[in-house]
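Request: Have a read of the protein record below and say how the chain folds.
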Amino acid sequence: MTITEFLSPVLALIAWSMVMLLWLYATRIPAMQKAGIDPQEAADTKGDWKAKLPKGSNSPAENYNHLMEQPTVFYALMLFAAATGGQSSLLNMLAWGYVGLRVVHSLVQATFNRVMVRFALFLTSSIVLMVMTVLEVMRVFLS
C-alpha cells in the first residue's frame, strides 16, 4: 500500500470538515441575518445570541467544532503510523470506518440531530479510534 493510499482517509476527513465549514456558513449567516443578530454579538461565545437563532441552524457549526476535536487524534495517529512504517490494510480499513462514522455523525447532527443516534455513532467511532491506537501501541512497543 502506498503512503497516498494509506493517508487517503485523512484527506477525506479533512475534505469533509471543509464541507461542514461551508454548511456552517450557509446556515449560520442567513440565520443571523434573519434573527437580526449583529455579527459583533457573536464575539461573546457565552452570550445569548445563539438562542435567537432558528432551531437547528446552529447544528452545522457545532458539528464543525466537533470535527476539530477528536479527529485531531486520528490525524496524529495516522501520520505517526505513516512516518514509522505502520501502514497496514487493517489500520487503513479501520481509518475508513472512522471517517465514515464521523461523516454519518455530521449528517445526523446537522439534519435531524437525535442525540442518542449521535451518541451511538460517536461511541462507535471512538471505539474504532481506540482499536487503531492499541494496534499502533502494540506494533511499536511489543514488536
